[in-house]
């Protein structure tokens, strides 16, 4: 039986991601804390926390890894029609506290976004590392959102929600195109879902993912402020 490392709160360290278990896929370590320093080290190392309130902190690095390369974002014919309508307004960092709360509270299957996680990612947002992307309907209601971490030329998506059809898809299109313009190389999606795969995400080997991180997490992107300005060009495209 494999013994997983138990992380000490006073020692900022992770075992190599390659040491993660095959079953359950990607489980690497337990314990530690959710300090902003540890979270940043985790993402830079291809690791993320995922656990329930009744568990210790569990750290994961699955193989394969679901990612979206920004230039590979897929816009279906029906989504193109939605974008052409200009129904949703997309913003960034306008409502981080609401977005992370809605990501936690709108999942029918329950959530891993504990209060401790909300507190820690909110602190990362105050530090300019975590960001939210929002979708608003014409009545000014927040109907879709995503939050994640921007480190170097990598964006690590954490969770999203959608309260109206296509809200999360439209914000994904805006985010991917803005990341492409800024020179980001990859959007981490962690694990596969039908929604992500239909948007152009695909799975790559963990070794390839880690290689991309080593190249990109210390490279500065081509922007100074986190402000989504990309706009859908319109029906002529």
From TrEMBL:
InterPro entries: Acyl_CoA_acyltransferase, Leu/Phe-tRNA_Trfase, Leu/Phe-tRNA_Trfase_C, Leu/Phe-tRNA_Trfase_N. Gene3D superfamilies: Leucyl/phenylalanyl-tRNA-protein transferase, C-terminal domain, Leucyl/phenylalanyl-tRNA-protein transferase, N-terminal domain. Transmembrane segments: none annotated. Its EC number is 2.3.2.6. Keywords: Acyltransferase, Cytoplasm, Transferase. Its main location: cytoplasm. GO terms for molecular function: leucyl-tRNA--protein transferase activity. Pfam families: Leu_Phe_trans (PF03588). It is found in: Cytoplasm. It catalyses: N-terminal L-lysyl-[protein] + L-leucyl-tRNA(Leu) = N-terminal L-leucyl-L-lysyl-[protein] + tRNA(Leu) + H(+); N-terminal L-arginyl-[protein] + L-leucyl-tRNA(Leu) = N-terminal L-leucyl-L-arginyl-[protein] + tRNA(Leu) + H(+); L-phenylalanyl-tRNA(Phe) + an N-terminal L-alpha-aminoacyl-[protein] = an N-terminal L-phenylalanyl-L-alpha-aminoacyl-[protein] + tRNA(Phe). It comes from the Bacteria. Belongs to the L/F-transferase family. NCBIfam families: aat. Functions in the N-end rule pathway of protein degradation where it conjugates Leu, Phe and, less efficiently, Met from aminoacyl-tRNAs to the N-termini of proteins containing an N-terminal arginine or lysine. This is Leucyl/phenylalanyl-tRNA--protein transferase. It comes from Marinobacter azerbaijanicus.
């Amino acid at each position: 039986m494999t013994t997983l490392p138990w992380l000490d709160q006073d020692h900022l360290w992770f075992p190599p991601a390659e040491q993660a278990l095959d079953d359950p896929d990607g489980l690497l370590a337990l314990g530690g804390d959710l300090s902003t320093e540890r979270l940043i080290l985790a993402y830079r190392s291809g690791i993320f926390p995922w656990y329930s309130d009744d568990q210790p902190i569990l750290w994961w690095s699955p193989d394969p890894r679901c990612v979206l390369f920004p230039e590979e974002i897929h816009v279906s014919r029906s989504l193109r029609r939605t974008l052409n309508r200009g129904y949703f307004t997309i913003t960034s960092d306008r409502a981080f506290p609401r977005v992370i709360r809605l990501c936690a509270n709108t999942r029918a299957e329950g959530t891993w976004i504990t209060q401790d996680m909300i507190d820690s990612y909110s602190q990362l947002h105050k530090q300019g590392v975590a960001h939210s992307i929002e979708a608003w309907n014409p009545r000014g209601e927040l109907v879709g959102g995503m939050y994640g971490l921007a480190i170097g030329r990598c964006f690590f998506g954490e969770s999203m929600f959608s309260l109206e059809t296509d809200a999360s898809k439209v914000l994904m299109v805006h985010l991917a195109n803005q990341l492409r313009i800024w020179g980001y190389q990859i959007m981490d999606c962690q694990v596969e879902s039908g929604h992500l795969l239909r948007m152009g995400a695909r799975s790559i080997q963990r070794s390839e993912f880690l290689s991309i991180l080593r190249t990109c997490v210390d490279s500065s992107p081509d922007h100074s402020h986190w402000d989504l300005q990309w706009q859908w060009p319109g029906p002529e495209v």
